[in-house]
Amino acid sequence: MDAARDDGFRAITYLTEDGLTLYARDYSDPERANRLPVICLPGLTRNSRDFHQLALLLSTDPATPRRVITLDYRGRGHSGWDADKANYNLGVETRDVISACQHFAIDRAIFIGTSRGGLILHLLAEMRPELIAAVILNDIGPKIEPDGLKRIRAYLNSAAPPRDWPEAVAFLKACHGRHFPALHEHDWQEMAAAIYRDIDGRLVADFDPAIAAHLQTVDFNLPLPDLWPYYDHLAAKPLMVIRGQHSDLLSNKTIAEMAVRQPLLQVLEAPGQGHAPLLHLESVLSRIAQFLARSA
């Protein structure tokens, strides 16, 4: 399943400010330089492969092709693992995004942030607001629902490695199927190919286990911290939020408060999807394309 994902992009490595080697995919050619690029930031344990189908569609659009860059954070995908596990935090990962922009000589972009990627964008809006032309938040906001985070913690810390690709697909269906009735068989296969990697004939979840282990330290007897002060910086930008119809991480109440603080907020519900929606499905893709067109 790996070979099918190696088309349409250039694999790039670059150094962070602390010397770690990170990986990115660049779906581009020089003819697209006159449009704002799109930079895609994945979820907690996910990687650049999550955006492959979306990046191909956006970068090869016959009318408005656009450069798309997708990132692997430290400890995920093909990026280096950090010896200091404390560096798997939002502040360090936000600085890594800044390093990526510097490497690609990008001084302004449209950002798409899924889950943790959207949290990073909250911090980026305060640290380097001039980098952000517009933002799409995929099933994430300044407040996270505890039940959703508990489910993610249980899923990440209880799964045994699948023995083969069919078993990986079956496992994902068992875990997430009730939240994603809109997905077809090929969608589940692509999800498995994004989450797992074949290393010497063995499928492994493609991230440093220390990242998932960190969730075990969350004390759900205490309120989860929120990012509302950071959101107020983000709300100064053209902003769209996508919520999965069955999401348990982003609530409609939080979206309502986001809209109060940003009256021009565009809200889209992804039908038949949970956390976090696949963005290349037609019910979502057409609205993303419209938002990008208005954002230059």
Structure description:
- The chain is of the alpha/beta class.
- It has one domain: Alpha/Beta hydrolase fold, catalytic domain (Rossmann fold).
- Helices cover about 35% and strands about 20% of the residues.
- It contains ten helices and ten strands.
- The strands form two sheets. Strands 1-2-4-3-5-6-9-10 form an eight-stranded mixed sheet, sandwiched between helices. A two-stranded antiparallel sheet has the order 7-8.
- Strand 7 and strand 8 (about 200-205) form a beta hairpin.
- The chain is globular and about 45 Å long.
Query: How many E strands?
Result: 10
* Highest-level CATH class: Alpha Beta
Q: Find the CATH topology.
A: Rossmann fold
CATH homologous superfamily grouping: Alpha/Beta hydrolase fold, catalytic domain
Domains (count):
1
| Rough outline | globular
Low-confidence stretches: 1-5
Question: What is the string of SSEs from the N terminus onward?
Answer: EEEHEHEHEHHHEEHHEHEH
Strand share of the residues?
15-25%
Second rung of CATH, namely the architecture:
3-Layer(aba) Sandwich
Rounded to an integer, what's the Rg over CA atoms? 18 Å
Distance between the termini: 35 Å
The largest sheet has its strands arranged as 1-2-4-3-5-6-9-10
Largest sheet: 8 strands, mixed
Give the helix tally. 10
Give average pLDDT, whole number.
93
